[in-house]
């Protein structure tokens, strides 16, 4: 075996051992800075209307100006595998993160949120909200 080949094999073994050790090392969970999750699903009155969907998305983007919202994600149905446990009947979703219940309450009454409801509620047929807090 050549000297450079031995070095390569030795370094590969060292890398593999280090990788295994890092995978096995316990990960300490960090407390989230935004432990309250607010996930909202919207069913459109006109599910085939891209214009209506886009109006709701634009309205949701205005909510980013509300300081109590620490993070906001807006989504549409993904083309994932069809399974019994997957509900893809909705049209648009928003996923928000808040520091606490007070922040979420501030958001509910905020004028920007109220304007979004006033301007866009005629576009949806149904809304479901799931709120959760980290444990």
TrEMBL record:
| Signal sequence region | 1-24
Key word Signal present? yes
Gene3D superfamilies the UniProt entry points to: 3.30.70.100
User: Out of the domains of life, which is the source?
Assistant: Bacteria
**Key words of the record:** Signal
Q: Which parts of the sequence belong to the Stress-response A/B barrel domain?
A: 36-132
Q: What is this protein called?
A: Stress responsive alpha/beta barrel protein
Q: Which organism is it from?
A: Dyadobacter jiangsuensis
